[in-house]
């Protein structure tokens, strides 16, 4: 049987990405549909989450599915020593699809290789976050009217930030110019720079974060410094406040600039930025609902034609 799991965005063609964005657009027109009635969606969160879990669960509910799962592995039998393999095999007995966030890089890949039901990677360590990427692409498309030829500035923790890793891979189809703005300790890992070179993705690295640096940005993608991934908390303390976006820094920016952030925000965007029409992070999180409705349907075999047919009911 075809494995329909969503583990990484790296395998998605341009056509597939555009297809899913079109499906998300249909769900934005009409979020409530019974397309997944009688399906059970399991959400297994071995790491904390607000948006990803709640938007997947909202998506499942709006599609008529039922939801099971956990948000704290300490209250599951993994705290008694049950392996990830056994947990996945058990939950596969109960659910039609598993949405999983795990602290280990590669956990979603592993789960997809052993599970009889599809797996959706809701974030695996510092590796990938493909469903976030679909909502990021949808947000970029909605605000810029295109995904092509954009100047995309990624700021902050580019080492541990899984959202920027996934976004970079997905954008390979759309001729972006990336600007990586990070302190030396948190710069984009070599493997992703190599990926850019192999796929002819232009990138420029910066350590300065000033209003001049960001003047040509179409998308300014801010990220949180990921405290939970540091082994040396002294290093975290040293880098955590190096890059903070404030309202004054937007003075020279393009009119079409939109500021994205996967959230949660700690203090890398000051609250005065929220008042700017260029701030888009809360709408971005809302777009997560439509993107995740599309992902759940697609992984469970519902086509865009079926979604469109339902729109007309
Ligand atoms: N963007 C994101 O993954 O947010 P959560 O950690 O709240 O799910």
UniProtKB/TrEMBL annotation:
Start and end of every Aspartate/ornithine carbamoyltransferase carbamoyl-P binding domain? Answer: 4-141
EC number annotated for this UniProt entry: 2.1.3.2
What reaction does this enzyme carry out catalytically?
Answer: carbamoyl phosphate + L-aspartate = N-carbamoyl-L-aspartate + phosphate + H(+)
> Has the keyword Transport been applied to this entry?
no
A Pfam family:
OTCace
Q: What general EC class does the enzyme of this chain belong to?
A: transferase
In this chain, L-aspartate is annotated as bound at 80, 162, 224
Q: Which InterPro entries match?
A: Asp/Orn_carbamoyltranf_P-bd, Asp/Orn_carbamoylTrfase, Asp/Orn_carbamoylTrfase_sf, Asp_carbamoyltransf, Asp_carbamoyltransf_Asp/Orn-bd
For this UniProt entry, the molecular function terms from Gene Ontology, in alphabetical order, are: aspartate carbamoyltransferase activity
Which residues hold carbamoyl phosphate? 51-52, 101, 129, 132, 263-264
- Keyword entries, A-Z: Pyrimidine biosynthesis, Transferase
Boundaries of each Aspartate/ornithine carbamoyltransferase Asp/Orn-binding domain copy?
Answer: 149-297
Q: In which pathway does it act?
A: Pyrimidine metabolism; UMP biosynthesis via de novo pathway; (S)-dihydroorotate from bicarbonate: step 2/3
Taxonomically, the superkingdom here is Bacteria
Keyword Nucleus carried by entry: no
The protein's matches in Gene3D superfamilies, at most eight in alphabetical order, are given as: Aspartate/ornithine carbamoyltransferase
Its assembly, as annotated, is: Heterododecamer (2C3:3R2) of six catalytic PyrB chains organized as two trimers (C3), and six regulatory PyrI chains organized as three dimers (R2).
**Function per UniProt:** Catalyzes the condensation of carbamoyl phosphate and aspartate to form carbamoyl aspartate and inorganic phosphate, the committed step in the de novo pyrimidine nucleotide biosynthesis pathway.
| Protein name per its UniProtKB record | Aspartate carbamoyltransferase
Which lineage ranks, top first, belong to the organism behind this chain? Answer: Bacteria, Pseudomonadati, Bacteroidota, Bacteroidia, Bacteroidales
The gene is pyrB
């Amino acid at each position: 049987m075809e494995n329909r799991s969503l583990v990484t965005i790296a395998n998605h063609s341009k056509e597939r990405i555009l297809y899913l964005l079109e499906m998300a657009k249909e769900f934005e027109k009409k979020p409530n549909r019974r397309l997944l009635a009688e399906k059970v969606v399991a959400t297994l969160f071995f790491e904390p989450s607000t948006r990803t879990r709640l938007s997947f669960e909202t998506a499942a509910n709006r599609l008529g599915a039922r939801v099971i799962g956990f948000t704290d592995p300490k209250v599951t039998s993994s705290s008694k020593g049950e392996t990830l393999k056994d947990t996945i095999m058990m939950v596969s007995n109960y659910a039609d699809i598993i949405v999983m966030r795990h602290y280990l890089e590669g956990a979603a890949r592993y789960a997809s290789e052993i599970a009889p039901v599809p797996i959706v990677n809701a974030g695996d360590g510092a590796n990938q976050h493909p469903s976030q990427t679909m909502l990021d692409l949808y947000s970029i498309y909605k605000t810029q009217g295109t995904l092509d030829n954009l100047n995309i500035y990624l700021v902050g923790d580019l080492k541990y930030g899984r959202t920027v890793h996934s976004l970079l891979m997905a954008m390979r189809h759309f001729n972006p110019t990336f600007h990586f703005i990070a302190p030396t300790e948190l710069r984009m890992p070599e493997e992703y720079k190599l990926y850019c070179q192999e796929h002819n993705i232009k990138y420029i690295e910066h350590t300065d974060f000033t209003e001049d640096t960001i003047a040509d940005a179409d998308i300014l993608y801010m990220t949180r410094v990921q405290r939970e991934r540091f082994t040396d908390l002294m290093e975290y303390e040293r880098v955590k406040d190096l890059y903070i976006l404030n309202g004054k820094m937007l003075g020279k920016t393009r009119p079409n600039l939109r500021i994205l952030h996967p959230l949660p925000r700690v203090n890398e965007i000051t609250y005065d930025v929220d008042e700017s029409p260029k701030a888009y992070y809360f709408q971005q999180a809302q777009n997560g609902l439509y993107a995740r409705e599309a992902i759940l349907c697609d992984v469970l075999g519902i086509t865009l034609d079926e979604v469109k047919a339902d729109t007309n009911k």
